[in-house]
């Protein structure tokens, strides 16, 4: 070995630490390029900053990060015209694991004003060592700006490194990676370009990748969200939205703001104008992209709750604490505050846009069912979400606001003395609107909300009241309508069911909890109700479809209309002592069919109906 080459031991138990970096710290090998580019961008920003007070350090106007893959030599060369490093800095920054030159530099600026500080990325001093995931030897040649001396740091990632004098025409740093046999994919220019577009597309430093001897731009170089809103056109917003979401529609809403103070971040978010096509229901996690100083970190930070997962965009923060891998975010109070702030801003936008009923109806048609999920799973935001919900209603025609109404509007229309917000859940709005369940309510002018999304079977039980009014399913328990006089004539006097009710109850023993008279029917003879305290009928249907029919459902209640001719005739037969066992089963099946359910025994039901028609 030449006498000018110095061999040094790493300043830590590097064998164990490098093994951790290479095999455990990062989940994806391509991260090495993001880390090296981040370091190069920091070096360029540091030189620009120091040149403000020392013109001799001024960087060339065309300064860029240049990446050159060489398949024949099996190397990747990355060079930058940044601040560079002296021999001592090479030993300190690269010879000591977890010592970060960027961190040390940032600490030296502790007294500087925020607007005077450069925006640097590196923090933990281990990103550089990710190069050993793809290289079995790494050489770093660097010349400090303002110095004529260059040095080369070299290591195979074992227990030592060497330092030797070198030549470099201009200040800056050149890194040569000698690529491992199993990492040949990274010698392809297109692979490197793809990685840059994914992780570093928006950093301001130009990045080029050599393709067939020609340097080609690899990053866009502009972070749209960092620009003032006054400088961004609607066309630019739309273009960025389409690029981000891989869609072709116009955004329904664009949210762009900068937060400074206790939290320092910039956000550019979009609410899509169309529901995305999904052949199969996708993941429920939010995919808003997290950037740190323009460098993409992850889209798995869950910056918005699952019930806002339709929102796309970018959140770029200056001071988010990250763990050493920068892929797995710490559960820090800072990140939690950013999440709360971003969620609150989206909710505020929805509240403002909801004032235009026809415009909001477009959003609701696309994403209403997703937003309702928050009513079930997010106690913190349940009260904020409630006024944003929209429903079909028995009292709102299609031509008015698209047929949608809100809880505040419902409450404003409630009858004097009405204590509950009534709803009926099912699979289809048209079928619900024609349901016998509504007859008594409609006859008394009481509005009923029609809920048709699957989540509607769940969330009302966790949202007990709105503006002091209870939410109640009209199928759950006995609906007391006696205090409200019918607005239409009720027809014949009710029949005496004193013998009919116990006869049917005995005939349907084990299939219904009770048979009782009801005043909530007008045109129909029978209807089903859920027993008080149990799940409503729609929830029971969903549980049965899921194979959980015995999961504490209890037995339904069969309600009879004492004014209906059929019930009057049956009451007379019961008074005469006739056996009504088969008729009781037919009544129960009839009630099930009316509610969109199937008869207990479809073949038997068809046989009994056919026989009745023949007798008729």
Automatic annotation (TrEMBL):
GO MF assignments: ATP binding; ATP hydrolysis activity; ATP-dependent protein folding chaperone; unfolded protein binding
Keyword presence, Transport: no
Keyword ATP-binding among UniProt keywords: yes
Principal subcellular localization: cytoplasm
SUPFAM superfamilies listed in its UniProt record: ATPase domain of HSP90 chaperone/DNA topoisomerase II/histidine kinase (SSF55874), HSP90 C-terminal domain (SSF110942), Ribosomal protein S5 domain 2-like (SSF54211)
Annotated region described as A, given as residue ranges: 1-326
Domain Histidine kinase/HSP90-like ATPase: 28-183
HAMAP family: HSP90
Stated role: Molecular chaperone. Has ATPase activity.
Protein name: Chaperone protein HtpG
């Amino acid at each position: 070995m030449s006498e000018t080459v110095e061999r040094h031991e790493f300043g830590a138990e590097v064998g164990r630490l490098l093994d951790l970096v290479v095999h455990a710290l990062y989940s994806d090998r391509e991260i090495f390029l993001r880390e090296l580019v981040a370091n190069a961008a920091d070096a360029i920003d540091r030189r620009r900053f120091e040149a403000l007070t020392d013109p001799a350090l001024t960087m060339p106007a065309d300064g860029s990060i240049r990446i050159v893959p060489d398949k024949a030599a099996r190397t990747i060369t990355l060079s930058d015209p940044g601040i560079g490093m002296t021999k001592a800095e090479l030993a300190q920054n690269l010879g000591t694991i977890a010592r970060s030159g960027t961190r040390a530099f940032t600490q030296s600026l502790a007294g500087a004003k925020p607007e005077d500080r450069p925006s640097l990325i590196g923090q933990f001093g281990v990103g550089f060592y990710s190069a050993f995931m793809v290289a079995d030897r790494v050489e770093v040649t660097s010349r400090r700006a303002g110095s004529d001396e260059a040095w080369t740091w070299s290591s195979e990632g074992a227990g030592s490194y060497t330092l030797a004098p070198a030549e470099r025409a201009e200040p800056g740093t050149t890194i040569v990676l000698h690529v491992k046999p199993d990492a040949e994919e990274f010698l392809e220019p297109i692979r490197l370009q793809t990685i840059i577009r994914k992780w570093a597309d928006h950093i301001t430093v130009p990045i080029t990748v050599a393709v067939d001897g020609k340097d080609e731009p690899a990053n866009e170089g502009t972070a749209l969200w960092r620009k003032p809103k006054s400088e961004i056109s609607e066309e630019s917003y739309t273009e960025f939205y389409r690029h981000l979401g891989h869609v072709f529609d116009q955004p329904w809403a664009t949210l762009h703001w900068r937060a400074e103070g206790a939290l320092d971040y910039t956000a550019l978010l979009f609410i899509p104008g169309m529901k995305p096509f999904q052949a199969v229901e996708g993941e429920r996690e939010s995919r808003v992209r997290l950037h740190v100083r323009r460098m993409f970190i992850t889209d798995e930070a869950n910056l918005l709750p699952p019930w806002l997962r339709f929102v796309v965009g970018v959140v770029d923060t200056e001071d988010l604490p990250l763990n050493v891998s920068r892929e797995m975010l710490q559960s820090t109070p800072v990140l939690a505050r950013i999440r709360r702030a971003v969620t609150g801003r989206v909710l505020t936008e929805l509240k403002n846009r909801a004032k235009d009923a026809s415009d909001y109806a477009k959003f609701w048609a696309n994403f209403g069912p997703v937003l309702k999920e928050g009513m079930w799973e997010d106690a913190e935001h349940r009260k904020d979400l409630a006024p944003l919900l929209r429903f079909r209603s028995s009292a709102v025609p299609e031509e008015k606001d698209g047929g949608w109404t809100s809880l505040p509007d419902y409450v404003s229309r409630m009858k004097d003395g009405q204590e509950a917000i009534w709803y009926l859940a099912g699979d289809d709005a048209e079928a619900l609107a024609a349901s016998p369940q509504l007859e008594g309510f409609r006859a008394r002018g009481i509005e009923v909300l029609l809920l048709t999304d699957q989540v509607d079977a769940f969330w009302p039980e966790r949202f007990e009241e709105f503006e002091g009014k209870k939410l109640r399913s009209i199928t759950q328990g006995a609906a007391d309508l006696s205090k409200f006089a019918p607005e239409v004539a009720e027809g014949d006097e009710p029949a005496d069911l004193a013998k009919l009710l116990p006869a049917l109850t005995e005939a349907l023993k084990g299939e219904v909890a009770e048979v009782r008279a009801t005043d909530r029917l007008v045109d129909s003879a029978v209807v089903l109700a859920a027993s008080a305290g149990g799940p409503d009928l729609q929830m029971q249907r969903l549980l049965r479809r899921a194979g959980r029919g015995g999961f504490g459902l209890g037995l339904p209640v069969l309600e009879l209309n004492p004014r209906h001719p059929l019930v009057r005739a049956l009451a007379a037969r019961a008074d005469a002592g006739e056996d009504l066992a088969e008729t009781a089963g037919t009544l129960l099946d009839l009630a099930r069919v009316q509610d969109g359910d199937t008869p207990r025994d479809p073949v038997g039901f068809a046989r009994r109906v056919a026989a009745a028609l023949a007798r008729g």
